[in-house]
Amino acid sequence: MDSNANGGRSTMVGEMESSLERVRRQLSSPSTRHILQGPLLKRSDTLRKWNERWVILDPATGKMEYKVRRSDTTVRGIIVFDSTSTVTLSPTNFHGLPKYEGCCVYIGTPQKKEYFLCAETPSAARAWVSTLHATQLVLQAHKQAVDSLGGNGSAKLGTVATVVAVANATAIEASKEVEAAMKISLRAALGSTTNKLSKGQLDDLTIMMETLRVKDDELHQLLQDIRARDSTIREITDKLQETAEAAESAASAAHAIDEARRFLSSELERLKQDQENQVELSLLRFELAFMLTAKGIRREVKASC
């Protein structure tokens, strides 16, 4: 009977492992995993400066990689969150500019790490938040599935597949909102040129011209950053030079003070020695005077006798 029970448990564990493996394949399969990506403004942690970043969300891992430009191969950083993280559309416009009203997204993690992001439009911000919430459900369902395999939970493994499907659908809809926001932003940047386009469609020549303009702006900004960095380096160099000169003056003053201290110490030692010599000489004179006085008294006594 025990062997039958053990065999049944082994079969159950084997089925759970097989189901979990199917779920893992589903999570990692390009056909079932939809990656949301698009431009977001990210506030830096140190300077509180807003920088434009191209953000790529992987719902299967709970990671948001971000780069400076879409075409870049180097990842500048990663935002990691889980099912317990706080993801919300901020009621406060912490960017400050009126055009970003309703576009701000806040992410807070259990590690006390906070991220402040801004989308192109309010609808794009809502799309990012809804997709991040769907990603949290995927992460939570996957965790429950892993716990159920280890006997730590009672979640059904089939739930993961359902949640992944819902998250994919959410991400697809969100991508449409993000793409629409990108077109709105590009049309706004083009200004009067956009009005010449039929039905709001952007031809290749216009996109190329705008891309060249953006690249020129980026190079101009880079030149300004380099100049500002050079100016900062010169200021730091000047301050270091001033610090070195001040340190040299302080060292010279300390040396002079030390020499003066040594001279005073030597002078005090000499005065002390002179004083001791004076005391000894006074004692000798006193003894001599005492002896002469005593000798004179004895003579007087003898003469009187």
What can you tell me about this protein's structure?
This protein has 305 residues and is α+β, with helices and mostly antiparallel strands. Helices cover 63% and strands 13% of the residues. It is built from 5 helices and 7 strands; from the N terminus they run αβββββββαααα. The chain has helices at 2-28, 122-149, 158-190, 192-195, 204-304, and strands at residues 36-43, 50-58, 63-67, 77-80, 86-89, 104-108, 114-118. The protein has a 7-stranded antiparallel β-sheet, with helices on both faces. Helix 1 packs antiparallel against helix 2 and helix 1 (2-28) packs parallel to helix 3 (158-190). The protein is elongated, with a radius of gyration of 43 Å. The N and C termini lie far apart (146 Å).
Features:
Boi1/Boi2-like; 5 helices; single chain; elongated; PH_domain; PH domain-containing protein; 63% helix; 305 residues; alpha+beta; 7-stranded antiparallel sheet; PH-like_dom_sf
Condensed summary:
With 305 residues, the chain is of the alpha+beta class. It is built from 5 helices and 7 strands. About 2% of the residues have low confidence.
Topology, pairings included?
Elements: H1 2-28, E1 36-43, E2 50-58, E3 63-67, E4 77-80, E5 86-89, E6 104-108, E7 114-118, H2 122-149, H3 158-190, H4 192-195, H5 204-304
Antiparallel strand pairs: 1-2, 1-7, 2-3, 3-4, 5-6, 6-7
Class by alpha and beta content = alpha+beta
Topology as a string of helices (H) and strands (E): HEEEEEEEHHHH
Mean pLDDT: 75
**Total of helices:** 5
- Helix content class: 55-70%
Q: Widest sheet: strand order?
A: 4-3-2-1-7-6-5
Query: Could you describe the largest sheet, including whether it forms a barrel?
Result: 7 strands, antiparallel
The proportion of strand residues reads: 5-15%
CA radius of gyration: 43 Å
Termini separation (Å)? 146 Å
Tally the beta strands: 7
Unreliable sequence segments? 196-201
Oligomer: single chain
Q: Tell me, what's the shape? A: elongated
